[in-house]
Amino acid sequence: MDEIVAVHAFADNYIWLLRKGANFIVVDPGEATAVREFIEGRQGRLAAILITHHHLDHVGGVADLLAWRKIPVFGPASEHIDVVDHPLSAGDTVQVDELDVAFEVIDVGGHTLGHIAYYIEGALFSGDTLFAGGCGRIFEGSPEQMWRSLKRLAALPATTAVYCAHEYTEANLRFAVAAEPTNKTLRQRFNDVLALRAEKKPTVPSTLAMELSTNPFLRADQPDVIAAAEEFSGCRLHHEVEVFTALREWKNVF
Fold first, then answer.
1. Which of 100, 154, 165, 217 has the fewest CB atoms within 10 Å of its CB?
2. Is 239 annotated in the active site?
3. From 53, 54, 107, 115, active-site residue
4. From CA 31, how far away is CA 134, in angstroms rounded?
């Protein structure tokens, strides 16, 4: 892999492009024009499209890209996405020969029921499940399902770069500081992110190590996080999934 770069879309989406030589893979192209212009500007060729879930800001550009070039479209088998012609389930492998790369497919349902993530050594494309400093809203799944999904991602190597699909980091960390105010690493990260956003610079990718040390949704076993979640919920919380559920409900109204 020569590089992984972001194309910006809408207010805060990131469309990720992986390049090797003149060949590209695109992840979650919610719109097509910027993707096509980027690839054509480098005299490149689009080899495959990877979809994490069915929301329009992740699939809206696929049809236009297929009108430009007929290529395979990979996506979750359990979601109805018309443009997907290579349906995937947990444990499947996506082989893209043009880039000499193979992605592991991970079930990360919760944000949507069939949401999947794509993993290669050193890089995770987490869609709207794991964000820098946060996690996605639970629109279709259950808190238990989302918690299991996040635990799967947390088990990947700590050096893994996390390529999420939105620039939500500042708002996520503002909540994280409220949930764990004594975390010095988190405070420093928040200050660093504020400086980056003041200059309109991206805050992603993150690393899994950074998420494990600062993201409250991966830290439901930490005493300060538990205490904050209990204060919000007004009751004792006995299990990590209960802490996670309270945190997600709190973030929804934060």
1. 100
2. no
3. 53
4. 24
Tens-level pLDDT at each residue, the chain (254 residues): 899 999 999 999 999 999 999 999 999 999 999 999 999 999 999 999 999 999 999 999 999 999 999 999 999 999 999 999 999 999 999 999 999 999 999 999 999 999 999 999 999 999 999 999 999 999 999 999 999 999 999 999 999 999 999 999 999 999 999 999 999 999 999 999 999 999 999 999 999 999 999 999 999 999 999 999 999 999 999 999 999 999 999 999 99
Question: Among residues 28, 54, 55, 107, which one is catalytic?
Answer: 55
- Catalytic residue (one of 166, 221, 238, 239): 166
Token pair belonging to 107:
């079930």
Active site residue 111: yes
For residue 95, count CB atoms less than 10 angstroms from its CB and return exposed for 0-12, middle for 13-18, buried for 19 or more: exposed
